[in-house]
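tool_call: predict_structure(chain=1)
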Amino acid sequence: MSDKYGIDIGTCNVRLSYVNTGEILTEKNVITIKDRKLVLGYGDDAYEMFEKAPENIEVIFPVVDGVISDIDKMQLILEHLYKKLNYGKNVRGSDFLIAVPTDTTEVEKRAFHELVANSKIKPRSISVVEKSVADSVYCGVDIESPRGNIIVNIGADTTDISVVSLGGIVLCNTIKVAGNKINEAIINAVKQAEAKLIGMKSAEQLKFNLVDLGLRPVHKEMKLFGRVLATGLPVRTTIGSELINPVVAETIEPIIDAVKRTLEKTPPELAADIVDNGMYLLGGSANMKNIDSLFNRETGLKVNLMPDPINSTIKGVTKIMSSSKYDSVRYFPQEKVYN
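tool_result:
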């Protein structure tokens, strides 16, 4: 049996799976470069330098809004992590399945294919699958069924809202409000209320440790380091959940509005299925406490909060590669021919 690999390249994280064993490697999608030529670190090691590096060290995230913006740097990260997944071995001639963003152009989707095709990995075959379709497979949706399902994946830079039926995308709406916007809102809230500046990493910790979007959130506090805006000096500060919760709920409102707009455009028969099946909520920010309750209150839909939502796409890709019954959702990007 040939070696099979799945790839999910996101704005914040890149995930590779060795399908034959089910092993998954997840690391930050970042690279650090000194003086524009010397690579200092990849993945999690590079992320340790984020918000700490001096001016001569660049901390580069090669994917922006779910689309590859620097293919050379992305290729370096992918080759390094692929070798790491294989414990230092150069495994060539393998089959790959890449999850590609749903609401992007064919040129942007093909960039993901060419990223692997032109790398030192030397693949045998490369196929792609829409991320929303991979998510639906992970959720256990019957791809041969004509019943409609709505998948909401809150990523780092974008939130993808898709109505899926018969293994294809009926409707898709992508908005640029997601995890990073929530982090920025938390930073601004602390800045205005406390006159202190915190970093993105600290905001991420507050998001997952303090936020409770239920009707009766329990008071929580968290201590962290920030910088006093007036003096510029570092200080240890305590942040309460009462400051963070309303800000996060407000930031999520555009996502909820986008879900409602997508539902308004959904054909009536599929909408009836969605009412029965409920909404599937995925992505890293789906780990915020009681986010499913908030979506339920605002949309009236049952919300299926899947286990391990942050790894939903790569697990869906792995499932698709593991069984021939999902071959219909995979495809091979074709070169455009101009006459």
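agent: The radius of gyration is 21 Å. Proceeding to next step.
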